[in-house]
Amino acid sequence: MELKVKGINTRDIITDKAIENAMVVHAAFGGSTNLLLHLPAIAFAAKCKMPTVKDWALVNKKVPRLVSVMPNGPVYYPTVSAFLAGGVPEVMLHLRKLGLLHEDVMTVTGDTLGANLDWWEKSERRKKCRERLEALDGVNPDDVIMSPAKANERGLTATITFPSGNIAPEGSVVKSTAIDPTVIDKDGVFRHTGKAKVFTAEKSAIQAIKDRKILSGDIMIVMGGGPKGTGMEETYQLTSALKKLSYGKHVSLITDARFSGVSTGACFGHVGPEALAGGPIGKLRDGDLIEIIVDRNQLEGSLNFIGTEENRLSYDEAAEVLKKREMHTGLQPNPDLPDDTKLWAELQSISGGIWKGCVYDVDKIIEVIEAGKKALAEKNK
Protein backbone atom coordinates (compact mmCIF):
# COMPACT_ATOMS: atom_id res chain seq x y z
CA MET A 1 0.00 0.00 0.00
CA GLU A 2 2.90 2.36 0.75
CA LEU A 3 4.22 1.87 -2.78
CA LYS A 4 0.83 2.80 -4.20
CA VAL A 5 0.72 5.94 -2.05
CA LYS A 6 4.21 6.88 -3.25
CA GLY A 7 3.20 6.20 -6.86
CA ILE A 8 5.82 3.50 -7.33
CA ASN A 9 4.82 0.85 -9.86
CA THR A 10 6.30 -2.52 -10.80
CA ARG A 11 7.81 -0.96 -13.93
CA ASP A 12 9.69 1.48 -11.70
CA ILE A 13 11.33 -1.48 -9.94
CA ILE A 14 11.91 -4.03 -12.70
CA THR A 15 14.21 -2.13 -15.04
CA ASP A 16 17.20 -2.91 -17.25
CA LYS A 17 19.50 -1.93 -14.40
CA ALA A 18 17.63 -4.14 -11.94
CA ILE A 19 17.86 -7.09 -14.36
CA GLU A 20 21.61 -6.55 -14.61
CA ASN A 21 21.89 -6.38 -10.80
CA ALA A 22 20.11 -9.73 -10.58
CA MET A 23 22.61 -11.26 -13.03
CA VAL A 24 25.52 -9.87 -10.98
CA VAL A 25 24.18 -11.25 -7.69
CA HIS A 26 23.49 -14.62 -9.34
CA ALA A 27 27.13 -14.80 -10.48
CA ALA A 28 28.45 -13.83 -7.03
CA PHE A 29 26.39 -16.60 -5.41
CA GLY A 30 27.06 -19.19 -8.11
CA GLY A 31 23.31 -19.69 -8.37
CA SER A 32 21.13 -22.21 -10.18
CA THR A 33 21.21 -22.33 -13.97
CA ASN A 34 17.39 -22.21 -13.88
CA LEU A 35 17.68 -18.42 -13.61
CA LEU A 36 18.71 -18.49 -17.27
CA LEU A 37 15.05 -19.28 -17.99
CA HIS A 38 13.40 -17.16 -15.33
CA LEU A 39 15.21 -13.84 -15.73
CA PRO A 40 14.72 -13.43 -19.51
CA ALA A 41 11.02 -14.25 -18.98
CA ILE A 42 10.76 -11.56 -16.28
CA ALA A 43 12.60 -9.08 -18.49
CA PHE A 44 10.26 -9.82 -21.41
CA ALA A 45 7.15 -9.34 -19.27
CA ALA A 46 8.51 -6.04 -17.97
CA LYS A 47 9.48 -4.91 -21.49
CA CYS A 48 13.13 -4.75 -20.49
CA LYS A 49 16.16 -5.88 -22.49
CA MET A 50 16.33 -9.67 -22.40
CA PRO A 51 19.79 -10.95 -21.44
CA THR A 52 21.52 -13.00 -24.13
CA VAL A 53 24.06 -15.81 -23.79
CA LYS A 54 26.79 -13.22 -24.43
CA ASP A 55 25.41 -10.99 -21.66
CA TRP A 56 25.44 -13.88 -19.16
CA ALA A 57 28.97 -14.81 -20.18
CA LEU A 58 30.25 -11.23 -19.78
CA VAL A 59 28.70 -10.87 -16.32
CA ASN A 60 30.16 -14.17 -15.15
CA LYS A 61 33.60 -13.13 -16.38
CA LYS A 62 33.65 -9.83 -14.49
CA VAL A 63 31.90 -10.83 -11.24
CA PRO A 64 33.82 -12.85 -8.63
CA ARG A 65 32.08 -15.70 -6.83
CA LEU A 66 31.97 -14.85 -3.13
CA VAL A 67 29.76 -17.54 -1.56
CA SER A 68 30.86 -20.98 -0.35
CA VAL A 69 27.78 -23.23 -0.21
CA MET A 70 26.54 -26.51 -1.67
CA PRO A 71 27.02 -27.69 -4.40
CA ASN A 72 29.88 -25.41 -5.48
CA GLY A 73 32.05 -25.29 -2.35
CA PRO A 74 34.93 -25.15 -1.67
CA VAL A 75 33.33 -25.70 1.75
CA TYR A 76 29.82 -27.11 1.37
CA TYR A 77 27.92 -24.97 3.85
CA PRO A 78 24.11 -25.33 3.75
CA THR A 79 22.04 -22.49 2.33
CA VAL A 80 20.87 -21.46 5.80
CA SER A 81 24.48 -20.58 6.63
CA ALA A 82 24.55 -18.13 3.72
CA PHE A 83 21.30 -16.62 5.03
CA LEU A 84 22.69 -16.13 8.54
CA ALA A 85 25.97 -14.78 7.15
CA GLY A 86 23.91 -11.94 5.67
CA GLY A 87 22.41 -13.38 2.52
CA VAL A 88 21.81 -11.24 -0.55
CA PRO A 89 22.40 -7.82 1.06
CA GLU A 90 25.72 -8.98 2.53
CA VAL A 91 26.91 -10.14 -0.87
CA MET A 92 25.73 -6.83 -2.32
CA LEU A 93 27.88 -4.89 0.17
CA HIS A 94 30.95 -6.49 -1.38
CA LEU A 95 29.68 -6.01 -4.93
CA ARG A 96 29.03 -2.32 -4.50
CA LYS A 97 32.59 -1.79 -3.26
CA LEU A 98 33.67 -3.24 -6.60
CA GLY A 99 31.34 -0.87 -8.45
CA LEU A 100 29.35 -3.75 -9.94
CA LEU A 101 25.85 -2.68 -8.84
CA HIS A 102 23.44 -0.01 -9.99
CA GLU A 103 22.67 1.49 -6.57
CA ASP A 104 20.19 4.01 -7.93
CA VAL A 105 17.54 1.41 -8.78
CA MET A 106 14.21 1.61 -6.96
CA THR A 107 13.23 -1.33 -4.73
CA VAL A 108 10.06 -2.64 -3.07
CA THR A 109 11.03 -0.87 0.17
CA GLY A 110 10.30 2.43 -1.54
CA ASP A 111 13.97 3.37 -1.29
CA THR A 112 16.89 2.88 -3.66
CA LEU A 113 19.15 -0.12 -3.42
CA GLY A 114 21.96 2.09 -2.17
CA ALA A 115 19.80 3.35 0.71
CA ASN A 116 18.79 -0.22 1.60
CA LEU A 117 22.42 -1.31 1.72
CA ASP A 118 23.35 1.68 3.89
CA TRP A 119 20.67 0.55 6.35
CA TRP A 120 21.72 -3.12 6.23
CA GLU A 121 25.38 -2.39 6.87
CA LYS A 122 24.57 -0.72 10.22
CA SER A 123 21.50 -2.74 11.15
CA GLU A 124 20.95 -4.71 14.33
CA ARG A 125 19.44 -7.52 12.24
CA ARG A 126 22.69 -8.00 10.35
CA LYS A 127 24.67 -8.09 13.58
CA LYS A 128 22.37 -10.63 15.24
CA CYS A 129 22.21 -12.96 12.24
CA ARG A 130 25.98 -13.14 11.92
CA GLU A 131 26.43 -13.60 15.67
CA ARG A 132 23.89 -16.43 15.66
CA LEU A 133 25.78 -18.32 12.93
CA GLU A 134 29.00 -18.13 14.93
CA ALA A 135 27.39 -18.97 18.28
CA LEU A 136 25.26 -21.93 17.15
CA ASP A 137 27.38 -23.46 14.39
CA GLY A 138 30.85 -22.17 15.16
CA VAL A 139 31.06 -20.79 11.63
CA ASN A 140 32.71 -17.49 10.80
CA PRO A 141 30.25 -15.58 8.56
CA ASP A 142 33.17 -14.27 6.53
CA ASP A 143 34.07 -17.85 5.58
CA VAL A 144 30.63 -18.30 4.00
CA ILE A 145 30.26 -14.92 2.31
CA MET A 146 33.78 -13.75 1.56
CA SER A 147 35.42 -10.55 0.50
CA PRO A 148 36.78 -10.63 -3.07
CA ALA A 149 40.33 -10.86 -1.74
CA LYS A 150 39.51 -13.79 0.53
CA ALA A 151 37.52 -15.54 -2.20
CA ASN A 152 40.49 -15.24 -4.55
CA GLU A 153 42.82 -16.55 -1.85
CA ARG A 154 40.53 -19.56 -1.25
CA GLY A 155 40.45 -20.34 -5.00
CA LEU A 156 36.79 -19.55 -5.70
CA THR A 157 36.18 -19.27 -9.43
CA ALA A 158 33.11 -18.15 -11.37
CA THR A 159 30.47 -20.86 -11.50
CA ILE A 160 28.97 -20.93 -14.98
CA THR A 161 30.38 -21.35 -18.47
CA PHE A 162 28.37 -21.15 -21.70
CA PRO A 163 29.88 -23.53 -24.29
CA SER A 164 28.73 -23.38 -27.90
CA GLY A 165 29.74 -25.26 -31.04
CA ASN A 166 28.28 -27.36 -33.83
CA ILE A 167 26.22 -29.34 -31.29
CA ALA A 168 24.94 -26.18 -29.55
CA PRO A 169 24.88 -23.25 -32.01
CA GLU A 170 22.68 -21.16 -29.69
CA GLY A 171 24.68 -22.15 -26.63
CA SER A 172 24.53 -24.38 -23.58
CA VAL A 173 25.39 -24.09 -19.91
CA VAL A 174 27.54 -25.98 -17.43
CA LYS A 175 28.33 -25.38 -13.77
CA SER A 176 32.05 -25.50 -14.45
CA THR A 177 32.99 -25.25 -10.77
CA ALA A 178 30.96 -28.41 -10.10
CA ILE A 179 33.16 -30.49 -12.42
CA ASP A 180 35.35 -32.77 -10.29
CA PRO A 181 38.70 -30.94 -9.84
CA THR A 182 40.66 -34.17 -10.32
CA VAL A 183 39.65 -34.30 -14.01
CA ILE A 184 40.70 -30.70 -14.67
CA ASP A 185 44.10 -30.24 -16.34
CA LYS A 186 46.81 -28.16 -14.66
CA ASP A 187 45.98 -25.19 -16.88
CA GLY A 188 42.43 -25.09 -15.49
CA VAL A 189 40.86 -26.61 -18.60
CA PHE A 190 38.48 -29.59 -18.69
CA ARG A 191 39.01 -31.67 -21.82
CA HIS A 192 37.00 -34.74 -22.76
CA THR A 193 36.92 -36.42 -26.14
CA GLY A 194 34.89 -39.60 -26.30
CA LYS A 195 32.28 -41.67 -28.08
CA ALA A 196 28.62 -40.69 -27.82
CA LYS A 197 26.02 -42.95 -26.31
CA VAL A 198 22.70 -41.53 -27.45
CA PHE A 199 19.35 -41.65 -25.67
CA THR A 200 16.03 -40.16 -26.68
CA ALA A 201 14.58 -40.16 -23.16
CA GLU A 202 15.87 -39.62 -19.64
CA LYS A 203 14.32 -42.91 -18.50
CA SER A 204 16.34 -45.02 -20.92
CA ALA A 205 19.51 -43.11 -20.01
CA ILE A 206 18.99 -43.83 -16.31
CA GLN A 207 18.35 -47.51 -17.08
CA ALA A 208 21.62 -47.67 -19.01
CA ILE A 209 23.46 -46.33 -15.97
CA LYS A 210 21.77 -48.88 -13.71
CA ASP A 211 22.64 -51.69 -16.15
CA ARG A 212 26.30 -50.58 -16.19
CA LYS A 213 26.16 -49.88 -19.92
CA ILE A 214 27.73 -46.48 -19.39
CA LEU A 215 31.51 -46.80 -19.20
CA SER A 216 34.32 -44.52 -18.09
CA GLY A 217 35.08 -42.07 -20.89
CA ASP A 218 31.60 -42.16 -22.43
CA ILE A 219 29.75 -39.00 -23.38
CA MET A 220 26.02 -39.40 -22.85
CA ILE A 221 23.74 -37.51 -25.24
CA VAL A 222 20.18 -37.22 -23.94
CA MET A 223 17.96 -35.52 -26.52
CA GLY A 224 14.27 -34.69 -26.52
CA GLY A 225 14.33 -33.13 -23.05
CA GLY A 226 13.49 -29.57 -24.10
CA PRO A 227 10.08 -27.88 -24.09
CA LYS A 228 8.80 -29.82 -27.12
CA GLY A 229 9.94 -33.14 -25.72
CA THR A 230 9.04 -33.14 -22.05
CA GLY A 231 8.01 -29.59 -21.23
CA MET A 232 11.67 -29.14 -20.17
CA GLU A 233 11.56 -31.14 -16.96
CA GLU A 234 14.61 -30.97 -14.75
CA THR A 235 16.85 -34.03 -14.88
CA TYR A 236 18.19 -34.36 -11.36
CA GLN A 237 17.59 -38.12 -11.32
CA LEU A 238 19.98 -38.54 -14.23
CA THR A 239 22.80 -36.48 -12.75
CA SER A 240 22.22 -38.10 -9.36
CA ALA A 241 22.51 -41.56 -10.94
CA LEU A 242 25.84 -40.61 -12.52
CA LYS A 243 27.18 -39.58 -9.11
CA LYS A 244 26.57 -43.13 -7.86
CA LEU A 245 29.08 -44.53 -10.35
CA SER A 246 32.62 -44.91 -8.98
CA TYR A 247 33.87 -43.55 -12.33
CA GLY A 248 31.07 -40.99 -12.77
CA LYS A 249 33.53 -38.11 -12.90
CA HIS A 250 34.87 -39.59 -16.15
CA VAL A 251 31.43 -39.51 -17.83
CA SER A 252 30.05 -36.35 -19.43
CA LEU A 253 26.42 -35.55 -20.19
CA ILE A 254 25.06 -33.28 -22.93
CA THR A 255 21.31 -32.61 -23.09
CA ASP A 256 18.68 -30.13 -24.24
CA ALA A 257 16.96 -30.57 -20.86
CA ARG A 258 17.60 -28.50 -17.75
CA PHE A 259 19.19 -29.44 -14.42
CA SER A 260 18.38 -29.16 -10.76
CA GLY A 261 20.22 -26.45 -8.84
CA VAL A 262 22.19 -29.09 -6.93
CA SER A 263 23.43 -31.02 -9.97
CA THR A 264 27.18 -31.58 -10.23
CA GLY A 265 29.66 -33.02 -12.71
CA ALA A 266 30.43 -32.41 -16.38
CA CYS A 267 26.76 -31.93 -17.23
CA PHE A 268 25.86 -29.60 -20.09
CA GLY A 269 22.22 -28.51 -20.33
CA HIS A 270 19.98 -26.02 -22.13
CA VAL A 271 21.54 -27.06 -25.47
CA GLY A 272 19.93 -24.92 -28.11
CA PRO A 273 18.20 -25.32 -30.42
CA GLU A 274 16.54 -28.29 -28.76
CA ALA A 275 16.45 -31.53 -30.74
CA LEU A 276 12.74 -31.39 -31.56
CA ALA A 277 13.13 -27.84 -32.85
CA GLY A 278 15.66 -29.10 -35.40
CA GLY A 279 18.77 -28.66 -33.26
CA PRO A 280 21.87 -30.60 -34.35
CA ILE A 281 21.95 -32.45 -31.02
CA GLY A 282 19.01 -34.45 -32.44
CA LYS A 283 21.20 -35.76 -35.26
CA LEU A 284 23.91 -37.37 -33.16
CA ARG A 285 24.38 -41.14 -33.25
CA ASP A 286 26.00 -43.81 -31.08
CA GLY A 287 29.73 -43.88 -31.73
CA ASP A 288 30.02 -40.27 -32.90
CA LEU A 289 33.16 -38.65 -31.56
CA ILE A 290 32.44 -35.67 -29.33
CA GLU A 291 34.93 -33.09 -28.12
CA ILE A 292 34.27 -31.05 -24.97
CA ILE A 293 36.49 -28.19 -23.84
CA VAL A 294 35.76 -25.97 -20.81
CA ASP A 295 38.26 -23.34 -19.65
CA ARG A 296 37.27 -22.65 -16.04
CA ASN A 297 39.59 -19.64 -15.84
CA GLN A 298 38.55 -17.83 -19.01
CA LEU A 299 34.93 -19.12 -18.74
CA GLU A 300 34.94 -20.26 -22.34
CA GLY A 301 33.98 -23.62 -23.78
CA SER A 302 32.88 -25.65 -26.77
CA LEU A 303 30.78 -28.71 -27.58
CA ASN A 304 31.57 -30.19 -30.97
CA PHE A 305 30.92 -33.29 -33.03
CA ILE A 306 34.26 -34.13 -34.69
CA GLY A 307 33.45 -37.19 -36.81
CA THR A 308 34.43 -40.71 -35.78
CA GLU A 309 37.57 -42.39 -34.50
CA GLU A 310 38.24 -43.63 -38.04
CA ASN A 311 37.42 -40.31 -39.74
CA ARG A 312 38.22 -37.16 -37.80
CA LEU A 313 36.66 -33.95 -39.12
CA SER A 314 37.13 -30.24 -38.56
CA TYR A 315 34.34 -28.43 -36.72
CA ASP A 316 33.01 -26.98 -39.99
CA GLU A 317 33.21 -30.29 -41.85
CA ALA A 318 31.40 -32.05 -39.01
CA ALA A 319 28.72 -29.34 -38.96
CA GLU A 320 28.06 -30.01 -42.65
CA VAL A 321 27.71 -33.73 -41.93
CA LEU A 322 25.12 -32.96 -39.25
CA LYS A 323 23.20 -30.68 -41.62
CA LYS A 324 22.78 -33.54 -44.09
CA ARG A 325 21.69 -36.10 -41.50
CA GLU A 326 18.12 -36.94 -40.67
CA MET A 327 16.91 -36.48 -37.11
CA HIS A 328 17.34 -39.50 -34.82
CA THR A 329 14.63 -42.05 -35.62
CA GLY A 330 13.72 -42.54 -31.96
CA LEU A 331 13.26 -38.83 -31.31
CA GLN A 332 9.69 -37.92 -30.41
CA PRO A 333 7.77 -35.95 -27.77
CA ASN A 334 6.83 -37.75 -24.59
CA PRO A 335 3.51 -39.44 -25.47
CA ASP A 336 2.09 -38.40 -22.09
CA LEU A 337 2.76 -34.71 -22.70
CA PRO A 338 -0.51 -32.81 -22.01
CA ASP A 339 -2.09 -30.85 -24.87
CA ASP A 340 -1.62 -27.52 -23.09
CA THR A 341 2.10 -28.25 -22.67
CA LYS A 342 2.40 -29.18 -26.36
CA LEU A 343 0.76 -25.87 -27.30
CA TRP A 344 3.04 -23.94 -24.94
CA ALA A 345 6.10 -25.68 -26.39
CA GLU A 346 5.20 -24.68 -29.95
CA LEU A 347 4.36 -21.09 -29.04
CA GLN A 348 7.52 -20.54 -27.00
CA SER A 349 9.57 -22.02 -29.85
CA ILE A 350 8.14 -19.41 -32.22
CA SER A 351 8.95 -16.76 -29.60
CA GLY A 352 12.65 -17.59 -29.35
CA GLY A 353 12.88 -20.80 -27.35
CA ILE A 354 14.79 -21.56 -24.18
CA TRP A 355 17.38 -18.78 -24.50
CA LYS A 356 14.54 -16.27 -24.71
CA GLY A 357 12.89 -17.47 -21.50
CA CYS A 358 10.26 -19.76 -23.07
CA VAL A 359 7.86 -16.82 -23.32
CA TYR A 360 4.89 -15.94 -25.54
CA ASP A 361 5.87 -13.22 -28.02
CA VAL A 362 2.36 -12.48 -29.27
CA ASP A 363 3.46 -10.43 -32.27
CA LYS A 364 5.75 -13.20 -33.54
CA ILE A 365 3.11 -15.85 -32.88
CA ILE A 366 0.49 -13.90 -34.86
CA GLU A 367 2.99 -13.34 -37.68
CA VAL A 368 3.66 -17.09 -37.95
CA ILE A 369 -0.04 -17.98 -37.76
CA GLU A 370 -0.89 -15.47 -40.52
CA ALA A 371 1.95 -16.79 -42.69
CA GLY A 372 0.67 -20.33 -42.12
CA LYS A 373 -2.86 -19.37 -43.04
CA LYS A 374 -1.64 -17.80 -46.29
CA ALA A 375 0.48 -20.84 -47.10
CA LEU A 376 -2.47 -23.17 -46.53
CA ALA A 377 -4.72 -21.00 -48.66
CA GLU A 378 -2.21 -21.14 -51.53
CA LYS A 379 -1.87 -24.89 -51.12
CA ASN A 380 -5.64 -25.43 -51.24
CA LYS A 381 -6.23 -23.33 -54.36
What characteristics describe this protein?
globular, alpha/beta, 17 helices
Short description:
Helices cover 41% and strands 12% of the residues. The chain has helices spanning 2-6, 10-13, 16-29, 35-45, 53-62, 79-84, 87-97, 113-122, 124-137, 141-144, 148-153, 202-210, 227-230, 236-243, 315-324, 339-350, 362-379; strands at residues 160-161, 171-175, 189-199, 219-222, 252-255, 267-272, 289-295, 300-305.
What's the CATH topology name of the largest domain?
A: Glucose Oxidase, domain 1
Kindly give the count of domains. Answer: 3
Strand proportion, as a percent range, falls in: 5-15%
Return the string of H and E elements.
HHHHHHHHHHHEEEHEHHEEEEHHH
| Apparent shape | globular
What's the CATH architecture name of the largest domain? 3-Layer(bba) Sandwich
Secondary-structure class: alpha/beta
The CATH homologous superfamily of the largest domain is termed IlvD/EDD C-terminal domain-like
CATH class label of the largest domain: Alpha Beta
Q: Could you tell me the number of beta strands?
A: 8
Strand order of the largest sheet: 1-2-6-5-4-3-7-8
* Radius of gyration based on Cα positions: 23 Å
Distance between the termini: 59 Å
User: What's the helical proportion of residues?
Assistant: 40-55%
Largest sheet: 8 strands, mixed
Q: Count of helices?
A: 17
